[in-house]
Design a protein that fits this description.
Blueprint: H1 3-52, H2 69-90, H3 93-110, E1 121-128, E2 136-143, E3 146-154, H4 159-178, H5 184-202, E4 209-217, E5 221-225, E6 231-234, E7 240-243, E8 263-266, E9 272-276, H6 278-281, H7 292-301, H8 309-323, E10 331-338, E11 346-348
Parallel strand pairs: 1-11
Antiparallel strand pairs: 1-10, 2-3, 3-4, 4-5, 5-8, 6-7, 6-9, 9-10
Helix pairs in contact: 1-4, 1-5, 2-3, 3-4, 4-5, 7-8
Length: 349
């Protein structure tokens, strides 16, 4: 090869390398622009949420033309505000409050995922709601190579809690779809940006949200970040191990990047991932005795070998209600079992 050809090839290789870097920078910039737009739209909806308490008859979201999650949320929010305004006009104050809480409870149930289909997984989730509106939340969002899985709890109860939960769900769904290659920690920082602005600045509340966000890949790898309850992994033979979740609460600090820790584990074929909220372990018997983590682990292990995700989920609720028939908080259990990817996905509601 001549010196001229060598210099030409080197120059071409350098040009290709520069182009690849530029493409990467452009991709990052595009992703950043998308997220900024999402955050602006969520911030505008947060302003609407904050204003509804003072003027439910007139405050409405203007973001109603887009055909995406945020557009759907804005349209649903406006309909909800219309319903509340009509209730206040038609009923006495006490009855209106009861109707508002009932409406918020329906909103909370509407947040639950509707039969997501993830190749190679059985999914069984359920929430046992208390009489007032709590802040339990879980979601399963399909991706091309697996799923995003979220579980969390907003402190407090009532209408504002339902609004915060609704904003959190929409932020997670929108940002994960806009940035499919982002890690759980990166997504949580963006969600925290939105929630901190909503809860502290706009609503003037001191509430917070505990949230664990997991990224499941079809090879069984699970990456996660965020502090909530322990993660329980049940083996095919019923033996269980627990994985601690660590990290900051959301909506407390404006910037949580320094406190976020991403971890990973492997979910083998036949193993079941069990996520839950504090209403399960803190459910109390009449004697004051809590259900607790040890009883929960025993309940997860109680179904027979190779039990389905639904069987594991139901076993937890049966044991919990036997110990604590009445609960002061929502109780949520999400069981996800990895099966042979060639088998059809099975979903239990």
């Amino acid at each position: 090869m001549s010196g001229v050809e060598g210099r030409s090839r080197s120059r071409n290789a350098m040009l290709i390398a520069v182009l690849l870097v530029l493409v990467g920078v452009a991709g990052t910039a595009i992703g950043t622009v998308i997220v900024i737009r999402i955050q602006r739209r969520l911030s505008a909806l947060a302003t609407t949420a904050a204003g509804i308490g003072g003027d439910v008859a007139h405050v409405r979201s203007r973001d109603i033309t887009a055909r995406d999650e945020l557009g759907d949320l804005s349209r649903s929010f406006n309909q909800m505000a219309d319903d509340v305004a009509k209730l206040i006009e038609m009923t006495a104050a006490k009855e209106a409050l009861a109707s508002e809480l009932a409406l918020a409870a329906r909103m909370q149930q509407a947040l639950l995922p509707s039969a997501p289909r993830i190749a190679g997984l059985e999914i069984a989730g359920a929430m046992s709601a208390m009489t007032q509106v709590g802040g339990d939340y879980y979601d399963v969002i399909p991706t091309g190579d697996g799923a995003w899985i979220a579980i969390g709890d907003v402190s407090g109860h009532g209408f504002n809690t339902g609004i915060v939960t609704l904003i959190a769900q929409t932020a997670i769904a929108s940002i994960t779809r806009a940035l499919p290659a982002a890690g759980p920690g990166e997504i949580l920082q963006m969600v925290n940006d939105v929630l901190h602005d909503l809860v502290r600045a706009r609503l003037g509340l001191r509430d917070h949200m505990t949230l664990t966000l997991l990224r499941y890949h079809c090879d069984g790898t699970v990456e996660f970040a965020g502090a909530h309850q322990e993660i329980i992994v049940r083996a095919a033979d019923g033996a269980s191990r627990t994985i601690e979740t660590t990290g900051p609460w959301l909506a407390v600090l404006p910037d949580i990047r320094a406190h976020l820790v991403e971890k990973r584990f492997q979910l083998a074929a036949g193993e079941t991932l069990v996520l839950f909220t504090d209403g399960v372990v803190e459910a109390r018997a009449d004697t004051g005795d809590m259900f607790g983590l040890d009883r929960l682990i025993d309940a997860v292990a109680s179904p027979p070998r190779d039990a389905t995700a639904q069987a594991v989920r139901d076993a937890v609720f049966v044991r919990m209600r036997a110990v604590a028939p009445r609960s002061d908080d929502d109780a949520t259990v999400l069981a996800i079992r990895r099966i042979d990817a060639t088998l059809p996905t099975q979903i239990a509601s």
